[in-house]
Amino acid sequence: MTHSVLFHVQHLLGIGHLRRAGAIARGLVAAGLDVTIASGGAPVSGMDLAGRVVQLPAAESADRDFSAILDGDGRPIDDSWRQRRRDLLLDTFRALEPDVLLIELFPFGRRAFRFELLPLLELAARRRPRPAVLCSVRDILVAKNEAKRTAETLETLRRYFDAVLVHGDPRLVPLTASFAAADAIADIRYTGYVVETGPAATDTNDGAGEVVVSAGGGSVGLPLLETALAARPLSTAKARRWRLLTGPNLPEGDRGRLAAAAPAGVSVERFRPDFRDILSRAALSVSQAGYNTVMDVLATGVPAVLVPFAAGQEIEQTLRARILAGRGRVELVEAVELSPESLAAAIDRALAQARPGALAVDLDGVAATVAIVAEFAAKSANEGPSRP
Predict the structure, then answer these.
(1) Which of 98, 248, 347, 349 has the fewest CB atoms nearer than 10 Å to its CB?
(2) Residue 124: which CATH number?
(3) Could you report the per-residue pLDDT of 102-111, keeping only the tens digit for each?
(4) In a shared domain, residues 160 and 22
(5) Is residue 205 part of a domain?
(6) Buried b / exposed e along 47-72 (16+ C-beta atoms within 10 A)
């Protein structure tokens, strides 16, 4: 019997949430599960999500401070748009009758999408047999230190969810580091970190000895890329080849200006599906501290400089980067201290040190997630999971 999974994922600014969901979905499909992803963000060209994809009306953040949610045409979302999205999502659930409903981030985040997620959870709770309902979260949450918000989150988990899957390793960072009430959650399963596997570069020397500067999805990475260009002549690595990867979400005009400003020995590219393979041969990685990029750094063992994104209330990347810097694994440049001089100095420090050793951290998150989801799917299909 083939068990089915409906996986709701919403990306608003970068593409990290979608990349992690894609890696998990590929693992689930490879294990023989029938997977449908309900994707609420803008489609990303070239991303392999596996299974089927139901594209919900796309939503994106108006800015890096998440001041408003916009539709695919750049207009503020309205009630008519919400109803269309909600109806499509609920119809998808009814048609699939999944054994597992996997929801990324909610109720810890994505509160702006309660209009569709709460009705979805109610629909799942009424169905017999009831599907298992699992929450999928990264290692570090954006903390909201409000007692009312925390109480609402815990009540939603208690009422609707069977378990929370934390894609991290408590030896590096426990969930309590960013959600103080984590001990009140009935069932937390640490999966280890989700590390993507990508294709090998066609040129086996591609990336060898380079300084690779990457901006993740690219939507907020322009200052780092521009600073890296200015830092190059100040660094002892100025004679090396540098590769700037802008990410698919950087506007074409910004990418063009970077390319025009790049001197000899510096290439500017939009996206490399073989990024991890290139990184494995690089002399140094310079990047923000998003989940997926940091996992690529840890998996490849490349020396690294991290410049965490820290606009608005974002603390996730800063916390992750500080923890890794405290373990001696990376050089850290805080966002408020970023300048050509500070970045060049961090690059020189990273290159002057011995290649960092591997951290004692679990990077087998895909396999563990697949095993947990399969366990709940089988139980749901056979008898319906009991409420914890």
Answers:
(1) 349
(2) 3.40.50.2000
(3) 999 999 999 9
(4) yes
(5) no
(6) bebbbebbebebbbbeeeebeebbbe
